[in-house]
Amino acid sequence: MKKVFYLNTCDTCRKILAQFDLTDWELREIKKEPVTQEELAEMYKKTQSYEALFSKKSTQIKLRELDAKSLEEKDFKKLLLDHYTFLKRPVFLTDSDIFVGNDKKNLENLKEFFGVK
To answer: What share of the chain is helix, strand, coil (3-state, %, to 5)?
Structure first.
């Protein structure tokens, strides 16, 4: 399994995806085709944390008047399944690895995975 979960309207996602050869990867635009419960469970298996998959920059946090600091794992899981913008993106998922988000360390690991300098 090789999947990339991304948002087409996100410039950062498009910029990251453009750096890699994704011809044999399944590309999932999460607004059109949201993450399933099974896929989220697979991501959780690799991260051991729903919070690690959760984007604290989601506009939905403010709209729903959520206090991100008071959320628990069950809340993160529910929100991740409820609205696509709660997923930190992009997410590169393979049978053995997961790369979540666009922070510098994650991008370095992703480049190493793809053998890109």
So the answer is: 45, 15, 40
The 3-state DSSP class for residue 26 equals: strand
Domain interval for residue 68: 3-114
Cut 0.70: pTM above it: yes
CATH code for the domain in which residue 72 is found: 3.40.30.10
Q: How far apart are CA 83 and CA 51, in angstroms?
A: 15
Count of C-beta atoms within a 10 Å radius of residue 77: 19
The number of distinct structural domains making up the chain is: 1
Q: Distance (Å, rounded) from C-alpha 107 to C-alpha 101? A: 8
Model pLDDT for residues 76-106, shown as the tens digit of each residue: 999 999 999 999 999 999 999 999 999 999 9
- The per-residue pLDDT for range 4-62, each reduced to its tens digit, is 999 999 999 999 999 999 999 999 999 999 999 999 999 999 999 999 999 999 999 99
Alpha-carbon distance of 22 to 50, in angstroms, equals: 26
